[in-house]
Amino acid sequence: MMHNSGMTSTTTSHTRALVITEPQPVWMTLNEARERAFTGEIVFELDPEVVAYLDYGVVYYAERAGDPSLGQRLLEAGLLDDAQLRRGAVRVGEVEHLGRLFDRDGSVERDAVVVATERFTEELLSELANSATAMAHATAYRHHPSGVHRWFVAPADGAMNTPIGDVAHLDPSAVDELPGLPVGSSELLSDELHIEWDMRLDLDDELDVGIIEFSSEVPAADPLTATDPLTVAEDPVPSTDDFVLDMDLYVDDVAPEPAVAHELVTESDLDADADPETDSDLQADADHAVASTDDDVVADDEMIFLSVESELVVSDVADDEDSDVESERGLDDLEFEVTWPDGSAAEMAADESAHRSPMTTDDLEASADAQIEETDDGGFHFEMPPLVIDDGDGDPTTSGDAVPDDVADAVRRALAAIETATAQSASVAPLDARIDVSFDTDEHETAEPEAEPRVESIEPDPAPASWSSFAPPTLDMRAEMVYAQAETVEADAFAGSALAAADDSGPGDGDRTSALKRLIGSLRRKDR
Amino acid sequence: MSGQTFKILVTGPYAAGKTSMIQSVSQTQVVSTDVITSGEESEVKSHTTVAMDFGTYQVAGDDTRMLLFGTPGQARFRFMTNIMKGDVDIVAFVVDAEATATHAVAGVELRALLRDLRVPAVIAVNRCDDADAARQLARSLGALDGEAVVPCQLIDPDSGREVVVEILLTLLTAMESTKAEVA
What we know:
The complex is a heterodimer of chains A (528) and B (183).
Chain A: E1 7-11, E2 16-20, E3 24-25, H1 26-35, E4 40-44, E5 50-55, E6 58-64, H2 70-76, H3 82-88, E7 90-92, E8 95-97, H4 101-104, H5 110-129, E9 133-134, E10 136-140, H6 149-153, H7 158-161, H8 172-176, E11 193-198, H9 223-226, E12 243-248, E13 250-251, E14 262-266, H10 267-273, H11 279-285, E15 288-292, E16 302-307, E17 314-315, H12 319-329, E18 336-339, H13 350-355, H14 361-366, E19 372-374, E20 380-383, H15 405-419, E21 433-436, H16 441-445, E22 454-457, H17 465-468, H18 479-486, H19 498-503, H20 507-527
Parallel strand pairs in A: 11-12, 13-18, 18-20
Antiparallel strand pairs in A: 1-2, 3-9, 4-5, 4-10, 5-6, 7-8, 12-17, 14-16, 15-16, 19-20, 21-22
Chain B: E1 5-11, H1 18-25, E2 31-36, E3 47-58, E4 65-70, H2 78-84, E5 90-96, H3 103-115, E6 121-126, H4 131-141, E7 148-152, H5 157-182
Parallel strand pairs in B: 1-4, 1-5, 5-6, 6-7
Antiparallel strand pairs in B: 2-3, 3-4
Helix pairs in contact in B: 1-5
């Protein structure tokens, strides 16, 4: 088998130039070009000359010298008409560039044109590949002047052409069924993360404290709590990959003194930390309380922990191993006092915790002042740092709505005006009266007279510029009035499409035509 | 019979004159959702439509009325045109003949508009007095032979009113031709 192609090549890091020194079969040249991912033009010295154009080793177009232009061939194939070619081609001098054909004329059937072009190429190459031997000259990165290269490498702008109706809509029922989620998304939590909050019930009565019951035993009837990833372990039997935090708590009303440091711990760190055979590691590192994860800041395999001076066991091993470690270290006797920043520890309950948003690393940075103190009775006192919700703009006082006020105001006014259908009256309402448009949903659901918009007098001068061009709707322009009027009109009067209306050959059709004529006449009288 | 309503969608590229056309015939103050422009747009005009313009016209002593909806000109609001064009009687596409920098965008918009349009369309060529030049421009942007092309000077309300009359005449022609086909 002949393997020496007679072709030598020099390859750089950016181009793959081909230098052909002697005649060889066309297929061999093409094969070498494909193997070298050649991009550019290969001219075969045949009679007539044949030129193939390749992109990354793939021939996208080939033609004989003297062939009609690609546009002409497509015309002859019936895939384009003159108008489409005229609109779609960009002519620069003698060059007829078709690279933007589909962008310039949406009526051209792209797939058919591309398939036809591929057929032209394949027919020529298959004819030559096995029967011709020729000298060839390669020129890297020279493409066909018609711009056909662009069809095969430029992505189609499908988003521009997608009708709006094709966009999938969310099923609102799926959203409605969701419980009130915390501010932070539950997606911030790793799927493998489960937290068990074991509460000791044998607390001293004299402490008069509220008991926090954070456990997987939260009644399932409460959807808010039952679906909260902070409080519910989805798998009652955690796998060896699950991360389990056991924590005993009780609560006391103590003024907050925030002082908590935080650190990032990876799961690999946890593995090392949880090794029951390394007691020193356990002692040093098993003192973390899970706060939250923020996937904007923390990688998937990382978790953030509040550094708590306690002997909590943090492990990603199975429950039984945890139990062994705990019993071994006597952690069952460990107790905590927790004080929330608002001092409302006694009011804290599992449901409330379900609404509490997960803390982010920014929260931790801002509130890294909580601390754990040992109490007189041998327990621990934990002060929860204040939670700061930051929407990302650095200012926790602002909301996440990024729409400028003037834009939102303009849109609201447009919707309100259209809702009240100002066509009811030809008169322009005085500009010194402003309709206080309130988007009360009850206004749309009821036809009560008291649902009228509120009118209040204002000074005309200080009105914003955007208000000056706005005609306030009158009381007769309410949506209820318009809808009532619409009921007296034939259903097809509002069908929207003139064709649809014209399809109706009933008596209303003539009315619509005559109404249109009256409308035209009215406008023409104004012309005069 | 009374109560007939005709809805016209006025669309086109940025600063073509859509709002001016609506204002030329609207009996009510046009609900103009203009805001102050910023960036490069502020060099073209001080205010621009961000949601839509809304104008109305009602025949005196009659319940026949006309509603005009104007879309924002910026490409980022093009989805609104796609939404609204399915629920109007006729579409008017406004293009500024002298704003040649907008013609490429106008062509893209016009072809996208006509691609699946089921109602008649009229191309209003603003700042143009020559019908032939207007038709030539419209054709270069992708208008088909059947589309009505109207040269106009929308800075003049009378010209805007004439455009609206032409739009309604086109609609009337379409309705009558369709009726004839059905018959």
